[in-house]
Amino acid sequence: MFALASDGANVYMGGSGGVFVSDDGGDSWFPSNAGLETLNIRAISVVNGALYAGTYRDGYYISSDQGGTWGHAEGALFDRLTVRAITRAGGKYFAATAGQGVLVAEDSKGPWTPTNDGLGFLYIVSLRAIGGKLYAGTDGRGLFESDDDGASWSKVGSGLEKPFVFASVTIGPRLFVATYGSGVYELVGDVWESRSLGLADLNVRALVAAGDRLYAGTTEAGVFESVDGGMSWTEANDGWSEARVRVLLVVGEELYAGTARGGVYKAALP
């Protein structure tokens, strides 16, 4: 599994078997793949009431009926292209890709154009709009930010030991990233400082905030919780048998964890 998303009514998951939907809080799931030409899903986003499914080497698909049917977004830029995230900021749509960097469009169906000035690396792992800025995590070059709707990018901070940034999240003004190989970091001034005390696995694939708490999903050791802004972490895997976490999602008062074998676990938040 690679993706989890919610529109408030349903929870959606995506992976190598396509898209699945749950309308009962994850207790049961049913496939929702009508119109998909590939079942290799890498991202699911809810933007302006529509669903977007990014795929492995087949661009992205759009659904306007909660995953009931999907339409393929056409365009030469997306030919055999992997899409890892889609988001919206400043009235524009942005797509994170593996090989074409960040793409931008005025409309959800395009046309799309690259917007990579200052990015310097075109393999994007994560893309988020936070507080009027866009944050792009790269596959080996750290985190980049844009404060002009993607027109230009600049590198954020220095000091990441292994700059494979899989997620970025904020608690108030504090910015954190999840890295593959060196754990969690917080930006302090212009320097990234490690926030990994207690993490049993530094390969962190997912990072989310719920109020003032942080949750990190690791590749081999499950989920960890921090109640002190990342200064320390404790294991939060009670009752979970699958430790290989790929994605986390907060929906209301519940935390969902998607795992490598395709299972979804759910826990009530404190």
Describe the protein's architecture and organization.
The structure is a single chain. The chain is mostly beta strands and 270 residues long. The protein has a domain at 1-72: Beta Barrel (Thrombin, subunit H). The protein contains no helices and 27 strands. It has strands at 3-6, 11-15, 18-22, 30-31, 41-47, 50-55, 60-63, 71-72, 83-89, 92-97, 102-105, 113-114, 124-130, 133-138, 143-146, 154-155, 165-171, 174-179, 183-188, 191-194, 204-210, 213-218, 223-226, 234-235, 245-251, 254-259, 264-268. The strands form seven sheets. A four-stranded antiparallel sheet has the order 1-2-3-4, with no helix packed on it. The chain has a four-stranded antiparallel sheet with strand order 5-6-7-8, with no helix packed on it. A four-stranded antiparallel sheet has the order 9-10-11-12, with no helix packed on it. Strand 25 and strand 26 form a beta hairpin. The two termini are 26 Å apart. The mean pLDDT is 96.
Task: Tell me the β content.
Answer: over 45%
Rg of Cα set: 17 Å
Helix coverage percent of residues? under 10%
Helix and strand pattern: EEEEEEEEEEEEEEEEEEEEEEEEEEE
CATH-defined fold name of the domain at 1-72: Thrombin, subunit H
- Unreliable stretches (pLDDT < 50, length at least 5) are none
Q: Biggest sheet, open or closed, and with what strands and sense? A: 4 strands, antiparallel
How many β strands by DSSP? 27
- The tally of helices reads 0
The residue-averaged pLDDT reads 96
Strand order of the largest sheet: 1-2-3-4
| Level-1 CATH class name of the domain at 1-72 | Mainly Beta
Structural class of the secondary elements? mainly beta
Distance between the termini: 26 Å
Shape: globular
What's the CATH architecture of the domain at 1-72? Beta Barrel
